[in-house]
Amino acid sequence: MSAKDRIAGVLSPVVTPFKADLSPDPERFVRQCRWLLSQDVGLAVFGTNSEANSLSTDEKVELLDRLVGAGVDAGRMMPGTGCCALTDSVRLTAHAMKLGCGGVLMLPPFYYKGVSDDGLFKNFAEVIERVGDRRLRIYLYHIPPVSQVAITLPLIERLLKAYPGIVAGAKDSSGDWNNTKAYLDNFAKQGFDVFPGSETFLLQGMRHGGVGCISVTANVNPGAIARLFATWQTADADAQQERLNEIRGIFAKYPMIPALKAAIAHYGGDASWATVRPPLVALTREQAASLVSELKARDFDMPALRG
Amino acid sequence: MSAKDRIAGVLSPVVTPFKADLSPDPERFVRQCRWLLSQDVGLAVFGTNSEANSLSTDEKVELLDRLVGAGVDAGRMMPGTGCCALTDSVRLTAHAMKLGCGGVLMLPPFYYKGVSDDGLFKNFAEVIERVGDRRLRIYLYHIPPVSQVAITLPLIERLLKAYPGIVAGAKDSSGDWNNTKAYLDNFAKQGFDVFPGSETFLLQGMRHGGVGCISVTANVNPGAIARLFATWQTADADAQQERLNEIRGIFAKYPMIPALKAAIAHYGGDASWATVRPPLVALTREQAASLVSELKARDFDMPALRG
To answer: What is the spatial distance between Cα A90 and Cα B276, in angstroms, rounded to a whole number?
Structure first.
């Protein structure tokens, strides 16, 4: 498979809308995914910022079916399919393949801490062997601040040797450029596609052989982030990057997932978007007002959302 | 409900046997549970040391059904039913209640770190409200070294006020006696039953108003731990405690879950018990031999297991 068949560019870990009874809301979910695609942003559904681990496997299967059933392009999807339980990871990954997803983003099993690379290798190898599909493209998900379980360089090396082509890349949400650079320096030439986990590293990543980014803020600022990806070799790239960082900085002052949802609720004129599942808590009225006022002060808008 | 109806004593987070294909082995599971009950040890199935988070919800439901179907007393069971996803926690807890389990042990949702007590309260409250069964007895599971999400004193206070009787106690696996003592000092008189998460605190716990312990080592040394619980007010209690600590100390030199399974495999003459699910890794042949030789040097045996 050539690099051309690979997912690249900007992806959003799509926030998951919930109804008042906290059940997932497939209609709003489909609408949000269509909007993101219209901004040229791909769909890393079931990421950390999707509250994916607050959903059961049945709920994820159902949401994925609803997306594909609504005609959303599965080739633009990189669902998160890495769970604590091997059997859940296998089930979700196989289902994503059946639907034709362009790739899957896999957390390591994250309950046990201090596990060995041997055990993690075995976990990913079992998923790959059991799914048994040459089209599978796995992106390893490194997010130690949350998962507390790391995707190390030796682990990547071993997986790449055992499953070249199938082990397709990584999302690095360490927030540590040195780690992203080590991934790039060691593996990019072998066709291992590295996505920084934040648009703050988009430009730096592209200049060092990265292929895009998968960023939470792409949920609310998709067009501008996609534009930097498309024009990163132009003269105003650094200015664009600075503006992206400014907007992200505002969201980062608040609990991130509730803040995204509050912004979507406000700019989309759809209050029910603010709902989160426990253990998360929605922004207070005051927090939401303060967020919007800060965004307005920087001339931020999401006009297309109301379209 | 009087304290007499409550689970007390020594419970084991029962290790889960797997077949060669890594699927759960219900027959060996039933046998192990029966053996533990014969040693007067209750069944905290689906604990950390059960590799419970490496099982899907479907697999847990099936194993619980098999236990009850085999006539194992559900009143002696305190299955772990706390998951990352609210819907999984509700489903498992409701199923445990349907089967008549004496209680459930609930982890907080453990993917997101740094969550608020408000969010954790909402999580437990939603489970309680949705299950909607006055017989429910929830034991909060505090194991910050693994879950990284704590059950704080203010959270317990708030839950006890909102759901007296239903919020029945806690397992404290912090390994920090000061925390166990704070649980006891603050809440034991309100009928909040505290189980230290290790038999090393069994005697100390009983002397301060505890009701037993839930300990990993009860998988391999059940009779001796249950004996200390039954005779903690006798003259040789301290000597018994010392001996328990000595045996635990040997297991603690190895990765704990694989070591338990290696010991059960050895003393039960049943090699397939050694199997673990990734991300865990079984002991090497050398580690297993060394474990057994250390245990033998201290005259440790598990004769009943072969009965």
So the answer is: 17
